[in-house]
Specification:
Elements (H helix, E strand, L loop, with lengths): L4 E6 L1 H14 L4 E6 L13 H7 L3 E2 L11 E6 L15 E5 L7 E2 L5 H4 L4 E8 L9 E8 L6 H24 L15 E2 L17 H11 L8 E2 L2 E12 L7 E4 L3 E4 L4 E7 L2 H10 L2 H9 L14 H7 L3 H9 L15 H12 L3 H8 L14 H8 L1 H11 L1
Parallel strand pairs: 1-2, 1-4, 2-3, 4-5, 6-9
Antiparallel strand pairs: 5-7, 7-8, 10-11, 11-14, 12-13, 13-14
Protein name: Formyltransferase family protein
Pfam families: Ank_2 (PF12796), Formyl_trans_C (PF02911), Formyl_trans_N (PF00551)
InterPro entries: Ankyrin_rpt (IPR002110), Ankyrin_rpt-contain_sf (IPR036770), Formyl_trans_C (IPR005793), Formyl_transf_N (IPR002376), Formyl_transf_N_sf (IPR036477), Formyl_transferase-like_C_sf (IPR011034)
Length: 401
């Protein structure tokens, strides 16, 4: 097997997991990677596959540079380029698709099954041909769609199920000992980029409560978008027992945390997204407001687009009482990090340096904050302390000893 070349192509955690698996089990092979055009070598809510390859010293290649490799095994894991099989000398071209083929070929497989009120979906490992997700099937795994899943939840489940399916079959792929079956025509479906316009999402309120609930679920992916109704971002919907007596789409009640709206059949409660309220309260140290929002059922541990949560924000802004409440009540992990890897204790040190007030930093250390955490640049708090002030560095050094 040592003369084989394994190319992992794609993005996000599934590509990282499979790459690490291959590195561990097939280290005698040449292992290379193709990265997506949108991968900028920076972590966000998902880890960067490109950055991971760079950190692991994996050779990153362009697609056109591997066409001539005869002993190539190409594994596509959310890769963003269409593959022209005629250009390859190998036939060992594999793809993981996030649906139970032949259903839901193409785009938006995390949204459309929910929008269509499907109860099940799956992941499919298949050969790549010149169609769109039309290659012969190697292996599949089905699973139920939880009735509370939104688009993001389903995507995360796809990542987990897809990773497991590849790992279960990768030995057979690399040993050419797998069987295939043609995709049936029955229940086959395809959806293009035009099937959903995420730039112009509009909830159709002239629908049943269940249809509206599924729209909210299907379009809720916090890192990309949340649906908007009457100017409010909505993250969840709950169907009520009361039958609608008003015209569909009529606002029956508008509270701080929710809208109650009439539909074709039953009234529906639309829960407003309160993350901005939570993070503003954290910045201002408003414990009571944070508690009120928590008691309304909103998840106050959520992060913003940069990975900042209430503990990071409270620490950075010197709100000691709120930091203490968060830690004492175990609301957020004391070692929380943003998407750049900057930890709570690093933010607390920044506040201490700028203000001269070390109370939050010392409290976090007392409560067991990890001083050895590193950020995406592989730098820890001792590095930044030395840049800030020699006294800070010496104090932290004494704690380490």
């Amino acid at each position: 097997m040592s003369n084989k070349v394994i190319c992992i192509a794609g993005k996000n955690s599934i590509a990282i997991h499979i790459l690490d698996y291959v590195l561990n089990k097939y280290s005698n092979c040449r292992i290379i990677a193709c990265i997506n055009r949108t991968d900028n070598f920076k972590n966000n809510w998902q880890l960067s596959f490109a950055k991971h390859c760079k950190d692991k010293s994996i050779e990153i290649v362009k697609l056109e540079n591997i066409y001539e490799i005869e002993n190539l095994y190409f594994i596509s894991l959310e890769f963003d380029k269409l593959i022209d099989v005629k250009k390859f000398k190998t036939k060992n071209l594999f793809n993981i698709h996030f649906s139970y083929l032949p259903a839901y070929k193409g785009m938006f497989t995390s949204a459309l099954p929910i929008l269509h009120n499907m109860q099940e979906t799956g992941v499919t490992l298949h050969l790549i041909d010149n169609g769109i997700d039309t290659g012969d099937i190697i292996a599949q795994k089905s699973f139920s769609i939880n009735k509370d899943f939104n688009c993001r939840d389903l995507y995360v489940e796809y990542l987990s199920q897809g990773k497991n399916l590849v790992i279960e079959n990768i030995d057979n792929l690399l040993n050419n000992s797998f069987n295939t079956k043609r995709q049936p025509t029955l229940n086959s479906s395809y959806f293009s980029k035009k099937s959903i316009d995420f730039n112009n999402l509009k909830i159709d309120l002239n629908s049943t409560a269940d249809q509206i609930l599924n729209q909210i679920r299907a379009f809720s992916f916090r890192e990309y978008q949340l649906p908007m109704v009457y100017g409010y971002l909505i993250y969840k919907a709950i169907t009520l027992d009361s039958k609608s007596m008003s015209k569909p789409g009529t606002i029956l009640r508008n509270d701080f945390d929710s809208l109650i709206v009439s539909t074709i059949d039953y009234d529906i409660k639309l829960l407003k997204d309160l993350l901005d309220e939570v993070l503003t309260a954290a910045k201002n140290g408003e414990i009571n407001k944070v508690i009120i929002i928590q008691n309304l059922g909103f998840d106050i541990t959520l992060k913003d687009e940069n990975g900042w949560d209430i503990l990071i924000i409270a620490s950075f802004n010197g709100k000691f009482k709120l930091v203490k409440w968060i830690i004492d009540n175990k609301i957020v992990d004391i070692n929380s990090q943003n998407y750049k890897g900057t930890s709570v204790i690093m933010y607390a040190m920044t506040y201490a340096f700028n203000s001269g007030d070390k109370s939050i930093m010392n409290y976090l250390i007392e409560k067991g904050a990890n001083l050895y955490l590193v950020d995406n640049k592989n730098l820890d708090i001792f590095h930044y302390a030395k840049l800030y002030d020699e006294t800070f560095f010496c104090e932290l050094l004494s704690i380490r000893k």
